[in-house]
Amino acid sequence: MSVVTSDQPLSGFRIGVTAARRAEEQVALLERRGAEVLHAPALSVDPNRIDEVALLDATKDVLSRPVDIFVATTGIGLKSWFSAAERWGMLEELTGHLGRAEILARGPKSVGALRRFGLRELWAPESEEFEDVLGHLRGRDLQGLRIVVQEHGQSLSMAAHALRRLGAEVTTVAVYRVEGAADPEPLFGLIEEIAARRVHAVTFTAAPAVAAVMQAAASTGHRDEVVTAFQADVVASCVGPVTAAAFEMWGVPSIYPERSRLAAMVKQLEVELPSRAAGTSLEVAGHTLLLHGDDVLLDGVEVKLSPAPYAVLQALLVNPGTVVSRHDLLGALPSGTAGSEHAVEMAVARLRAALGTRCIQTVVKRGYRLAVTP
């Protein structure tokens, strides 16, 4: 993909936009800076739809029998559920019923919502990942226990099925559903452009949009190609860390601005895309490290890296010289890599073997960083 330089910082760049809400504003911001925009909404304009009749039925089901374990996954979901219960005159009964259970929370927002309604969690993972909540439950004897799971906008039926296989009785409560775009054709078109690497970046303003894109990619048989494209040539640009976290399970590096704002995301792309087109050159431990597309050169000599060490290098290059935790590096590894810190250590060891041991510094109890020369 060739890039034409001009006074407009994004001239010559093709950028996919997956937003439905405020999409016109985002497209205008990008086009004013010279970008060619491919708009392909991943979600509906009003994605978080609450079916009050279904929610009331689910609430009555929850109240019908004692609950042993309650899993809270999102703050907005809990607030919406408890607010609905308050309208129905059932709030006190519901919170009292759930309060007698062991409560697990996915992250700080769900913790905050619980405490706002007088409930307290007994455990929450440091990672804020639902997968770690499942791991916590899988390590226990669940035979005969009733577990209630508040869903987070997308169906957790597969997770519920996995817990049922361990002997638990699982009830899922769908407070709201994230609706996909009414017309999926533009998204399918964008998937093909990403897979063929005919776009330079794709923007995401909501975590469910990441899941929707990956589901669309899988349904068209392009998921592996899309993941590979994001890992190499196509920038996954997110509005903030919550959206960026949705890419971790795919081993896709993403960028997001310090302030979770639309204008800040566009501003970051103004800097990121031209710099990537020109190649990234850094002085690292007395050597010149140059990245241009997929090519890595050390003092002018091409270095061949396998996918795992290349993914680690890309993660370290997001903010050169900044410490990246083992957990974050694990999230950056390609899908299919063994999910343990040992996999990170092996990838770092291979990267050091390729670039030199002094290029990657270990920061005790924190992680790794590039030894960037000031």
Walk me through this protein's architecture:
With 374 residues, the chain is an alpha/beta fold. It folds into three domains: 14-47 and 181-276, 3-Layer(aba) Sandwich (Rossmann fold), CATH 3.40.50; 51-175, Rossmann fold, CATH 3.40.50.10090; 279-370, Arc Repressor Mutant, subunit A (Orthogonal Bundle). It contains 15 helices and 17 strands. The chain has helices at residues 23-32, 52-64, 75-87, 91-99, 108-116, 130-138, 157-165, 185-195, 207-219, 223-232, 241-245, 262-278, 307-317, 326-332, 341-355; strands spanning 14-17, 36-39, 43-49, 69-72, 102-105, 146-150, 169-173, 177-180, 201-204, 235-238, 254-255, 280-284, 287-292, 295-298, 301-302, 360-363, 367-370. It has a five-stranded parallel beta sheet, with helices on both faces. α13 (307-317) crosses α15.
What tags apply to this protein structure?
disordered N terminus, single chain, four-stranded parallel β-sheet, 15 helices, five-stranded parallel β-sheet, alpha/beta, Rossmann fold, 374 residues
Helices and strands in order:
Blueprint: E1 14-17, H1 23-32, E2 36-39, E3 43-49, H2 52-64, E4 69-72, H3 75-87, H4 91-99, E5 102-105, H5 108-116, H6 130-138, E6 146-150, H7 157-165, E7 169-173, E8 177-180, H8 185-195, E9 201-204, H9 207-219, H10 223-232, E10 235-238, H11 241-245, E11 254-255, H12 262-278, E12 280-284, E13 287-292, E14 295-298, E15 301-302, H13 307-317, H14 326-332, H15 341-355, E16 360-363, E17 367-370
Parallel strand pairs: 1-2, 1-9, 4-5, 4-6, 6-7, 9-10, 10-11
Antiparallel strand pairs: 3-8, 12-13, 13-14, 14-15, 16-17
